[in-house]
Prior knowledge:
The chain is α/β, with parallel strands linked by helices. It has helices spanning 32-46, 68-73, 78-81, 85-92, 151-154, 161-180, 199-217, 246-258, 351-369, 410-444, and strands spanning 10-11, 23-28, 51-57, 61-62, 83-84, 95-98, 101-105, 110-113, 116-117, 123-125, 128-131, 134-137, 142-143, 155-156, 190-195, 229-234, 262-264, 269-273, 276-279, 284-286, 289-292, 296-297, 316-317, 323-324, 327-332, 337-338, 383-387, 393-399, 404-409.
Amino acid sequence: MLRVSSGHREKQGNSVEKTQDTHEIVIVGGGAGGLELATRLGDKLGRKKRANITLIDASPSHLWKPLLYEVAAGSLDSYAERLEYLAQGHWHHFRFRLGRMEQLDRAKQEIGVAPTFDEKGEEIIPRRRFRYDTLIIAVGSVANDFGVPGVSEHCIMLDTPSEAREFHRRHINACLRANTQTEGVAPGQLTVGIVGAGATGVELAAELHDTTRELSAYGMDHIDPDRSLKLLLVEASDRILPGLPPRLSGAAAERLAELGVEMHVNERVTEVRRDGMMTASGKFIPASMMVWSAGIKAPDFLREIDGLETNRVNQLVVKPTLQTTRDENIFALGDCAACPMPDGKTVPPRAQAAHQQATHIAKAICRRFRGKPLLDYVYRDYGSLVALGRFSTVGNLMGGLSGGSIMIEGAMARLVYWSLHKMHQIALHGWVKTSMTTYAHFISTPTRARIKLH
């Protein structure tokens, strides 16, 4: 029997421990929204013992997902940037439990968590069940391969830090091999094909260009970053960044062209092979390494989760209050939630939406505790920013004094982009700790390599 905390209820087998009747809040998913919500609720309710807050995630640590392209390119060390859930829970009065949700029993108000295994396949944590009074599902999204043959065999996804590190490892090894071979770099030997020219694909292409230049400067002088490395973006729409305003998309395309990135638009990939991609137009685009970033979906286990309503990409359909349509005690937020907007569309899967929804649900749960009705969530679009390497960013800011959209580029855009991550850190750590860690990062910069070399 694992004793968790006074009032916490965790089942192993058929037994249950319950020492007092305390409201149980279970949050599944420790991404940007889930972790911010656990932190807020822990500070508001957990600290005062008004509720037990439990965060469940399949990983022991958190990394802000918009940073994964930097991990893949090698410009960010994921181990240095990660945040341990156990430590965050200790500091902010919630409990963390390692595991992956696999079941939901709404009648018993329980979720099932799959067993956890080590690298050798040995079970270290058994299958468990957790009782809840309020459940928040914040499991994010994964890459959607749309059933295209060959994707799982030949493409790398960038859903997790481990996948981003795997891409970086392969890229570094390919560069090492090319740099040391006696015959020189062969044409097409270092060709990275990126399927999907959304924000992730575009940012990865630009960052790879910069980090490969750093590799050359660090001693891989047989690699010419402008000739040896070939970067390809393949997009089914008629322009890159199709979800953003055309003016922003055009500015990004101009910058990528300056970096030598090839952009294949109006090309839908129908098959991925070991040495490249076949498109619907009959074109074969060769590549030595491929990344799939062409759309997202919620995890497949949500599709049939005890009768909750889902859409075609597995998202849980929620009411404007962010409660699921068929159970008022279950909320969903972030990429795994389909929240309606007044214009009939759903809230876009962006980090700013997850941040807003975490704040909204924290307030909503506190309102429920006081017996007050829940308010509707209203999405506020503050704009979009896309990083195009270390020194270039383009974006648009919404609202403000103008009441419309303002396009920004250059240093100002880069500063605003940098501030987005800082806002996430402030939500988790507060102003003082974030200021201290930011200062420590800047003063240590001169002694750190600009890229991860292993």
